[in-house]
């Protein structure tokens, strides 16, 4: 009987705890993620002033800044970054605000992360730098920005691909990817760095019928 009473009392005690005060983020921390999602910079500043943990994690390991970055919520991201949010804090799948902004072409947030300590050598869950998915997805200005910031243009990811290879293999051969190839070549990307099967960027371009990219590679001395 005493044991049953203890269990019931425990259940009632848990039920009496207000939402947000149980195990997990505090009310302020949960509010910070919500404010970031709705791009409410004023609420973010109020919550931080009240003592919210700026780098607290949600159920997926995301900070409020990463939530803001997911939605390209520029005002929220700016408020958080200027308050000292960690631009390199990774979630459960190894995304950080810097890496995600680069991969998705969220240029304004990316620029802010670069100005506040972004780790240019950090890699995503595929072993790639921010430059590689940016090149694949055709984010021309993002690629330019990352190159100018000093990201290694010849970094090889876990698939055995560089930014140049991904721009060709996963790109569409159109004007955006042609411009990205131009940027990578101007940055002295290795035009003959092949994939794990020994297929070079030039061979991939030819196999896909990307004549404009093929011409660029040949002009750069590709074999």
What does this structure look like?
The structure is a single chain. By secondary structure, this protein is mostly helical. The protein has two domains: 19-119, Serine Threonine Protein Phosphatase 5, Tetratricopeptide repeat (Alpha Horseshoe); 122-223, Alpha Horseshoe (Serine Threonine Protein Phosphatase 5, Tetratricopeptide repeat), CATH 1.25.40. Helices cover 53% and strands 0% of the residues. The protein has helices spanning 2-16, 27-37, 41-49, 64-70, 74-82, 97-104, 107-114, 131-136, 140-149, 163-169, 175-186, 201-207, 211-219. The chain starts with a helix and ends with a helix. Mean pLDDT is 90; it is low at 1-29. Pfam families: Ank_2. InterPro entries: ANKRD_45/46/60, Ankyrin_rpt, Ankyrin_rpt-contain_sf.
What percentage of amino acids are in beta strands? under 5%
In the CATH hierarchy, the third-tier topology of the largest domain is known as Serine Threonine Protein Phosphatase 5, Tetratricopeptide repeat
Q: What Rg do the Cα atoms give?
A: 23 Å
User: What is the domain tally?
Assistant: 2
CATH superfamily of the largest domain: Ankyrin repeat-containing domain
Largest sheet: none
Mean pLDDT: 90
Quickly give the structural class: mainly alpha
What order do the SSEs take from the amino end to the carboxyl end, as H and E?
HHHHHHHHHHHHH
- The percentage helix is 40-55%
What is the name of the CATH class of the largest domain?
Answer: Mainly Alpha
CATH architecture of the largest domain: Alpha Horseshoe
ANK repeats: 27-59, 60-92, 126-158, 197-223
Signal peptide: 1-22
Keywords: ANK repeat, Signal
Pfam families: Ank_2
């Amino acid at each position: 009987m005493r044991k049953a009473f203890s269990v019931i009392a425990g259940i009632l005690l848990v039920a009496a705890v207000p939402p947000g005060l149980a195990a997990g983020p505090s009310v302020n921390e949960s509010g910070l993620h919500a404010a970031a999602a709705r791009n409410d910079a004023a609420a973010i500043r109020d919550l931080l002033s009240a003592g919210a943990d700026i780098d607290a994690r949600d159920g997926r390991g995301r900070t409020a800044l990463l939530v803001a970055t997911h939605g390209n919520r520029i005002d929220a991201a700016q408020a958080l970054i200027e308050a000292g949010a960690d631009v390199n804090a990774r979630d459960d799948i190894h995304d950080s605000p810097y890496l995600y902004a680069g991969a998705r072409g969220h240029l304004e947030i990316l620029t802010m992360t670069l100005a506040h300590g972004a780790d240019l050598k950090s890699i995503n869950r595929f072993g790639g730098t921010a430059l590689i998915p940016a090149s694949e997805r055709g984010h021309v200005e993002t690629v330019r920005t990352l190159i100018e910031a000093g990201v290694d243009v010849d970094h090889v990811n876990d698939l055995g691909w560089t930014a140049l290879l991904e721009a060709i293999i996963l790109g569409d051969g159109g004007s955006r990817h042609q411009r990205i190839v131009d940027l990578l070549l101007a940055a002295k990307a290795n035009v003959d760095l092949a994939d794990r099967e020994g297929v070079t960027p030039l061979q991939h371009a030819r196999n896909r019928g990307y004549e404009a990219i093929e011409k660029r590679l040949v002009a750069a001395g590709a074999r």
